[in-house]
Amino acid sequence: MAAEQRTPALVVGVDDTRASLDAVHWAVAEAGRQGLPVRLLHASVPAPSANGHRAELALAERLVATAAALDPGVEVFTELAPYDPVTALLQASREAFALVIAAHGHRGLTGPLPGQVSRAVAARADCPVVVVRGARTAGTGPRRIAVGVGEAEESRAALEFAFRLAAADDATVEAVRAWPRQGRAEPRHRTCAPSAPAPWETRARTTLDTALRTATRRHQQVPVRRITAAGPARDVLLLAASAADLLVVGAHRRAPDLGCLNHALLQHASCPVAVVPG
């Protein structure tokens, strides 16, 4: 008899801090919209003593009760993992719909530097990683999901994730593409051509339209706002995040780390940030 296939869950890295509770709130709200279960994951190394184990079980019971109160229709279960946080979360990412981690404040999940674990996991996870940060962790009214758009192929997974979330509750996707300010030099590798190259803004709009083609065809009911803006990608995306409920960006899995842009967004965005492997 074939083994029963489990529905992928939203996996939340938890401890007993307020930041962790914000992550639980975000995950339960999203799980309710997506029809997904929530798995609360607490990692502990070394293995706790008997008293420590009882404390962890009590924490798990409190978090389950909190999640049930937020949305009784969401299935919530817990796991105590005898691994370091990065290992536990990366293992969970193999089967999860997404990982949800608070940006700061986790005694059990951040290691020696604030945000160290969230950055390490976002750079290496097999699924999207949502880092819950900023004041806009649970906005009211129609949601706005901003997504940074690079080249068409690079942005496909990030766009699909953003549209999947938006389709569940009539949220608007704001597709954002930055272009260099007027006066910057053209790329060194430009080839000679008989006609002048298209303006940067026109190129940005063309790239945006090309990247959006598949996602808009698949999710025709999702409202889309196209945004092209002059300036560094970091500044343009942080501005978009200031008015959004979620910022979605892609990540190269062949790269050894997140890169400067995504690193800056995880540090400074004023809303949760989803890093989607491509």
Describe, in short, the structure shown:
The protein has 278 residues and is α/β, with parallel strands linked by helices.
Describe the strand arrangement of the main beta sheet, using strand numbers: 3-2-1-4-5-10-9-6-7-8
pLDDT < 50 stretches: 105-114, 184-197
| Tally of domains | 2
| CATH H-tier superfamily of the largest domain | HUPs
What's the CATH architecture name of the largest domain?
3-Layer(aba) Sandwich
Strand content: 15-25%
The geometry reads as globular
Q: Measure the end-to-end span.
A: 35 Å
CATH topology of the largest domain: Rossmann fold
Number of strands: 10
Number of helices: 8
CATH class wording of the largest domain = Alpha Beta
Taking all Cα atoms into account, the compactness measure Rg is 20 Å
Describe the structure.
This protein is of the alpha/beta class and 278 residues long. It folds into 2 domains: 10-132, Rossmann fold (3-Layer(aba) Sandwich), CATH 3.40.50.620; 144-277, HUPs (Rossmann fold), CATH 3.40.50.620. The chain is 40% helix and 20% strand. It has helices spanning 18-34, 50-70, 85-92, 116-124, 152-167, 200-218, 233-242, 259-268; strands at residues 10-13, 38-43, 76-81, 98-102, 129-132, 144-148, 172-179, 224-230, 246-251, 273-277. It has a 10-stranded mixed sheet, with helices on both faces. Strand 4 (98-102), helix 4 and strand 5 (129-132) form a beta-alpha-beta unit. Helix 5 packs across helix 6 (200-218).
